[in-house]
Amino acid sequence: MSAVAGTPHPDRGSVQSRLMQWRIVVVFVGLFVVISAVAVLIALLAKPTPIKPVCPKHKVCVHPPRGGRVPPLELSSSPRLEFWQAFVNSALGYRFEYPSQLVTTDVTTTSVTVKPPSDNAALIVTFEGAPSSQATPDQLLNDRLNGLRGEIPNLTENNIGAEQILGPEVGYRAGVGGFYQGDLDSPSGLVAPSDVAVMAASDGSETIAVSVISANRDNTGELFGFADVLLSTLRFRGDVVQ
Q1: How far is CA 24 from its chain centroid?
Q2: What was the pLDDT predicted at 201?
Q3: For the domain with range 81-239, which CATH number is right: 3.60.15.10, 3.40.50.2300, 1.10.287.1770, 3.40.1000.10?
Q4: CA dihedral 172, 175, 176, 178 (to 10 degrees)
Q5: Is the pTM of this model over 0.85?
Q6: Residue 43 has pLDDT above 50, yes or no
Q7: Which has fewest Cβ within 10 Å: 72, 97, 109, 236?
């Protein structure tokens, strides 16, 4: 059959050219998709693995992992203390640490005093404990105050002094306590105006009272600050990691 007059024949070269253009576009699109996919994969592989939470969100760890030194307030996971020399009470099991410049004196089954070896010590820290069934924090606080009045007859509570005891606590347990002042009778016969902090608390099994005497009132802030570091090592028996 003959061709219809007036109908142009498509140019074979132009058709092939358009096909080549479409193929190039398709190839570029394909390469772009592949490159994008590879980039996403690399990013996912390079992304660090999320750290699995130690505790469920908004919940308290019952048995958090141990290992390494942790802040003192993390009692449930605190490792054995190793800062200074350790003292462990033989009957109640409470423990604390103290530097080698201090010595332990007047040691009994329930109490101990830590101070410099000098008779006229500027800092005297005394621990006294009892089973909770035998003494509440208030009772042991009064016992400690009565003991202090043997050395400081005019011991009086001071509610307006600069060294107030705000939120008294012992072994990171909230308790009772106060700030006192009086004149310390030293073994040498000298009388030293002294500042005294007395606190007591219980963990439900045992009760511990602590008194801190600064026999150098000009340096009470520094002495109390040092005593605070020492007391931060105090642990009830139940808080010591075995």
Answers
A1: 66
A2: 97
A3: 3.40.1000.10
A4: 10
A5: no
A6: no
A7: 109
